[in-house]
Amino acid sequence: IGCIGILGGGQLGRMLSVAASRLGLRCHIYEPGDAPAGDVAHRLTTASYEDRDALTRFAESVDVITYEFENVPTSALDLLESLRPIRPNRRALAVSQDRLTEKTFLNGIGLATAPFVDVPAQDDLAAAIAQMGTPAILKTRRMGYDGKGQIRIEDAGQTGWTGAPSVLEGFVDFSAEISVIVARGADGQVAAFDPGLNVHRGGILRTTTVPCGLPARVATDAVLIAGRIVNALDYVGVMGVELFVTETGLIVNEIAPRVHNSGHWTQAGCAVDQFEQHIRAVAGLPLADGRRHADVVMENLIGHDMDRVPELLATPRTQLHLYGKADIREGRKMGHVNRITG
Ligand code: ATP
Ligand code: MG
Ligand code: MG
């Protein structure tokens, strides 16, 4: 493998490109919009997912196709897949693109999720609330991220609509949120990084801390759950698995078929980080073992957190990552810091 095609040119594509180039591989990024990754990739194509000529030229220029963004239209994927292998595979994408198929799949392999009801249209909401009870969370089935497309339902009389087919989830009374960054190689080998403790604010991830501070049996259980998911999907690549810790055990919140924000700590905590691990998997190279050599707190720099950059540059044992995004907007992920704490 000499050239990896990446669908999506955001910060994840950017960090994947850097990791690939360290391994002597080139990346060709395909991105319809703003592409912070454009400056580090070997090649950038800016074209829509409807542009069949551009998609064809892109696929023909690469050896394998991966993605940093799971909402690529099916028609584009069909064309790309006829030309080059897509890793992780289409099933993993289809399952995780839609919260309804995702939860159905997870329950089907014996894993617990929040209780949920399909809410195809606004007219179905009242019945769904009656069935689920409150509090609950209404989420769009597709395209939501950073808590976008979600409405908290506090009482049965509440109105409001996400504007798209949704699922209503029962509110999970969790004591903590953790995630596992797991990888599966082309040969079926599985390696996981240590679970991280995640803290969200306003629906957006703020910090990930490793070690997560939970009992070893909880961490082990989380890793085993992640392994079950990637094996069931015959997955190749890195996956982020978000879990709720509850009194009755772990509940899977959602899965992301790609490198994940809560895995950025691996850049400072492991010899091989999640980005290199993903590149290794999709390029058919052996996986690293995921071992951690430092305690790390990862903090996202969101919007005007950028004002803190001078101070962060002067902080010892702190690794700064900036994504090169031109305009600062509230709620926009601009960078992150990995603070080594032990
Ligand atoms: P991401 O940016 O991680 O993809 P998202 O928009 O897909 O986020 P979720 O992960 O579904 O959103 O939810 C965001 C956060 O909201 C969760 O991390 C958790 O803190 C809270 N949350 C989501 N679903 C539930 C639930 N059923 N019960 C309690 N809290 C929840
Ligand atoms: Mg999500
Ligand atoms: Mg999430």
Give an account of the 3D structure.
With 342 residues, the chain is an alpha+beta fold. It has three domains: 3-86, Rossmann fold (3-Layer(aba) Sandwich), CATH 3.40.50; 115-170, Dna Ligase, domain 1 (2-Layer Sandwich); 176-340, 2-Layer Sandwich (D-amino Acid Aminotransferase, Chain A, domain 1). Helix content is 27%, strand content 29%. It is built from ten helices and 17 strands. The protein has helices at residues 11-22, 52-60, 74-83, 90-97, 99-108, 125-132, 216-232, 266-269, 274-282, 309-313, and strands at residues 3-7, 26-30, 43-45, 64-67, 116-119, 136-140, 150-153, 166-170, 176-184, 190-192, 196-201, 204-210, 237-246, 249-256, 296-302, 318-322, 333-340. The strands form three sheets. Strands 9, 10, 11, 12, 13, 14, 15, 16 and 17 form a nine-stranded antiparallel β-sheet that branches. A four-stranded parallel β-sheet has the order 3-2-1-4, with helices on both faces. Strands 5-8-6-7 form a four-stranded antiparallel β-sheet, sandwiched between helices. A hairpin with a 2-residue loop joins strand 13 (237-246) and strand 14. Helix 4 crosses helix 5. The protein is globular, with a radius of gyration of 20 Å. It starts with a strand and ends with a strand. The mean pLDDT is 96. The structure holds adenosine-5'-triphosphate (ATP) and magnesium ion (2 copies). Its EC number is 6.3.4.18. It is an enzyme of class 6 (ligase). ATP binds at residues 99, 139, 144-150, 169-172, 177, 200, 253-254.
